[in-house]
């Protein structure tokens, strides 16, 4: 029974990923607003109802990593090393992601194409604003939890706002550089320099916050 359940779950994950990959391919070729869910279902060889079983909205098809995006900074804070401050942990993770070209840095392959599609779609822009707000709120909740902050303590909210503003601007700067035609190594070097400055400024303001 457990083996059958495991196989079923794996097949569901594979089906979900296949639908998301096909949808993104269509979106990148033709633009988000020019592709319908029915077209995605037809190319994926599933029914429209099957698509909606896995994805609540068309925007969810495009933003299939939204849960990871919302939770990412909170996860880094929760998993920080003993004695490591919040800023130290987040800086370490960001620089690692930057070097690896991981989506966490906002400089993964195709990031500028994705950003352009979002900018061209009002519904995607609205969803990204919503996700960014949820990400910041979730981080504030996590900071309050790990530091034992009182309910009326504004520090977690202020810290989360500053941290999320920095990572958002770094990603935007990287996309801007790529769109301007800079080479990959040049883009990474430029964003790294900005990241070091930004996290240093955060550390000067927040100090050993959350170091335990």
TrEMBL record:
Gene3D superfamilies: Homeodomain-like (1.10.10.60), Tetracycline Repressor, domain 2 (1.10.357.10)
Ranges where the HTH tetR-type domain occurs: 13-73
Keyword Acyltransferase carried by entry: no
DNA-binding region: 36-55
Keyword Repressor set for record: no
Lineage: superkingdom: Bacteria
InterPro entries attached to this UniProt entry: Homeodomain-like_sf, HTH-type_TetR-like_transc_reg, HTH_TetR
Entry keywords, A to Z: DNA-binding, Transcription, Transcription regulation
Coiled coil: none
Protein name: TetR/AcrR family transcriptional regulator
Origin species: Sphaerisporangium rhizosphaerae
């Amino acid at each position: 029974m457990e083996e059958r359940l495991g196989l079923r779950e794996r097949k569901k994950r594979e089906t979900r990923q296949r639908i998301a990959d096909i949808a993104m391919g269509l979106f990148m070729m033709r633009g988000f607003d020019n592709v319908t869910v029915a077209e995605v279902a037809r190319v994926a060889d599933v029914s429209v109802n099957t698509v909606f079983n896995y994805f609540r909205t068309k925007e969810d098809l495009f933003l299939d990593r939204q849960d990871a995006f919302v939770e990412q900074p909170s996860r880094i804070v929760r998993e920080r090393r003993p004695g490591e401050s919040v800023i130290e942990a987040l800086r370490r993770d960001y620089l690692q992601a930057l070097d690896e070209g991981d989506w966490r840095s906002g400089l993964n392959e195709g990031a500028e194409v994705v950003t352009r599609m979002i900018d061209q779609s009002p519904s995607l822009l609205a969803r990204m604003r919503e996700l960014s707000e949820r990400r910041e709120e979730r981080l504030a909740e996590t900071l309050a939890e790990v530091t034992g902050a009182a309910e009326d303590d504004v520090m977690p909210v202020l810290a989360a706002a500053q941290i999320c503003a920095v990572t958002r601007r770094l990603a935007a700067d990287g996309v801007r550089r790529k769109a301007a035609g800079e080479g990959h190594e040049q883009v990474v070097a430029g964003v790294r320099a900005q990241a070091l400055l930004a996290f240093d400024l955060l550390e000067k303001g927040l100090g050993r916050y959350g170091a335990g």
